[in-house]
Amino acid sequence: MHEEIADQVWEAVGSWVEGRHEESAQILAMLAETQTPSMMYGVACGIATIATAALTKMHGPRSHACFWGIRTVGDLRPEDIVPPHHLFAARFLAASLNNDKDTAVALYQAAYTSSDPDLWPACMHTLLAATGEAVIAATTGAHR
């Protein structure tokens, strides 16, 4: 069962990379309809693992002295200028890159249990899109 889900995660990211964004979103939506919340956390982690590989390819392996974070211009807080679903994706990827499982779980739970029923799907879709874009950026010869 986990192999099937992993294959679908790879297919969703691959579809995004190939420009088939609607198909990518449909694969993610189908997973969300058929999997438990804990399995969908695994899907989020699988997506983030692919992004981690792409970002590591672009920036090299990080040393223990490095830390991934979110920076804004001026004194603005990310919460004040970044839409929640984009902030989720950035923070979830940073948590994954920093190997911070506690933060990743907290972010996922906050999105999943939000009173806004549209937040969690938007967060997952943005995580998928950001990962697809990271793969494109890391792929030699990728054309836009």
Run of helices and strands:
HHHHHHH
Report the uncertain regions: none
Beta strand %: under 5%
Number of helices: 7
Largest sheet: none
Write down the overall mean pLDDT. 90
Q: Decide which structural class fits the backbone.
A: mainly alpha
What is the end-to-end distance?
A: 35 Å
What labels would you give this structure?
144 residues, mainly alpha, globular
Account of the protein in words:
With 144 residues, this protein is mostly helical. The chain has seven helices and no strands. The longest helix is centred in the middle third of the chain and has 23 residues, at 37-59. It is globular, with a radius of gyration of 15 Å. The mean pLDDT is 90.
Summarize the structure.
The protein has 144 residues and is mainly α. Helices cover 72% and strands 0% of the residues. The protein is built from 7 helices and no strands.
Blueprint of the fold:
Layout: H1 2-17, H2 21-34, H3 37-59, H4 78-81, H5 84-97, H6 101-112, H7 119-138
Helix pairs in contact: 1-2, 1-3, 1-7, 2-7, 3-5, 3-6, 3-7, 5-6, 5-7
